[in-house]
Protein 1
Amino acid sequence: MHPVPQGNANHEIRVTELTVNRPGSAIFENCVTHIKITDEAAGEYVLVEQPMVNTDGQIQIDPLEWESIRDAIDYMVQECRDQDGKRRAAANETVLNMLRF
């Protein structure tokens, strides 16, 4: 696996979508789950999609793939930013530190 490039002073490079699938399978197959950071002008949030599964908005998770999907969702939640462009995870950490006695 390759590390994510860092970008430069004028541009950043962000991972905004992860795909969980069986090794060797195509990204359009039924067993694929996409976890992405999206934004509709109110701050970023995580969207989980299984585009080839026709389940009226439901997702289907095989117990064997749960750990990978959970890890991908956790990672993307940590990468979400608020409307000011700050990572929400960092803001949540600051609040938790303030609440500690």
Protein 2
Amino acid sequence: MSIKGDPQEAARKYGTTNRVLIEARIVHDPYDEFAWVQDWRFAIADVLAYERGVWVPGYESFGPDDSTYAYDMLTDQPGYSDDELLYAYAILTRYREWLRLAGKDY
């Protein structure tokens, strides 16, 4: 899905103007938030590390998992900047920590 249109409308509807976070919010799974947030975090980190050669703090992997929807979304739609991806990663990492503190991780 491509995000187009007014950035203020996107911010009102999705709570952000970051295009990566908007894509993630569109497919948000309210029944398994931990899996959803981890899927997007790993996909973003894989794209940054393996597609772009950008170091991602606290991330270790044996190779990209290119079989996930999130990874496909990030690689099929070029144009996301490294800064957009790093910001989305940081926000999702913070959200994952909130889920852990609430006892919703596994």
